[in-house]
């Protein structure tokens, strides 16, 4: 009796050990005792390790210096960062020439549009209030899907699921997206939901009279606000100068 109990116990505890150890090694972000990794976070290293982000990495490190900027911010920011990483497939699905048509400056804007200047867990994105500020001049909108831990991100031109965390530990969250997040401000709105003609190589580009179709954005509002302020300030300064002139003469 007693010995069979002992044997049972032994089997049970060794089974527990077997269950435990692979789980520990599998977990990428273990609930480890160490609160923070020893070295500085290597953002492009995380992408490289995940293995389907070569275009994104190339844009971040070769075409632009945005990766450096992100590394610096990770090192200094107290708020952390959230990055949406489009897969190579996402870039391949862009219309031919989309990236090449952008100046370096606009490529930087496009990349910074994928970065939020704050760490957001997936759960916190479900309830965040829209639009959410990005590192570019335009915001992103997030919609939580009921009864799931899933979130859609929307630019106004593109909507896609935020579905896989490559890394999620403050101060850095990196989520996979299967579409490149195109800001309407950089890309003229295409014919909505229509089938884009396959012969996209012609640079005719279509109507440029449709710029009024741009959606009103906060950035535009603040721009015009800033211009209004400058105008007001200029008027006041000008008025004072005229008064001074009258006084002197
Ligand atoms: C970060 O990772 C990349 C790719 O694995 C590597 O080339 C680079 O040297 C690493 N940088 C640092 C600071 O460790
Ligand atoms: C991070 O910041 C510290 C000082 O705050 C600096 O010594 C270190 O070189 C920085 N590391 C990187 C990778 O920028
Ligand atoms: C984002 O959300 C805000 C607030 O709900 C809304 O006013 C705006 O139109 C939305 N923008 C897009 C592109 O969906
Ligand atoms: C989320 O985005 C996908 C497109 O990727 C769309 O099919 C789906 O309807 C969206 N869901 C919600 C709740 O907006
Ligand atoms: C279309 O845009 C080009 C440059 O973007 C400009 O030179 C041309 O005048 C525009 N045409 C019309 C009809 O607005």
Describe this structure in words.
- The strands form 2 sheets. Strands 2-1-8-7 form a 4-stranded mixed β-sheet.
- It is an alpha+beta fold and about 250 residues long.
- The chain has a domain at about 45-185: FAS1 domain, CATH 2.30.180.
- The protein has helices spanning about 1-25, 45-50, 55-65, 65-75, 90, 105-110, 120-125, 220-249; strands spanning about 80-85, 115, 130-135, 140-145, 150-155, 160, 165-170, 170-175.
- The longest helix is centred in the last third of the chain and has 31 residues, at about 220-249.
- The protein binds 2-acetamido-2-deoxy-beta-D-glucopyranose (5 copies).
- The site of one 2-acetamido-2-deoxy-beta-D-glucopyranose has 4 residues, from helix 2.
- One 2-acetamido-2-deoxy-beta-D-glucopyranose (NAG) binds near residues 71 and 75.
- Keywords: Cell membrane, Glycoprotein, GPI-anchor, Lipoprotein, Membrane, Proteoglycan, Signal.
What sequence of helices (H) and strands (E) makes up the elements?
HHHHEHHEHEEEEEEH
Per DSSP, what share of the residues sits in E-state strands of 2 or more residues? 5-15%
CATH architectural category of the domain at 43-187:
Roll
- End-to-end gap: 117 Å
Strand elements, count: 8
Task: Tell me, rounded to a whole number, the average pLDDT.
Answer: 74
Q: What is the CATH first-level class name of the domain at 43-187? A: Mainly Beta
Quickly count the helices: 8
CATH superfamily of the domain at 43-187: FAS1 domain
List ligands, each type once.
2-acetamido-2-deoxy-beta-D-glucopyranose
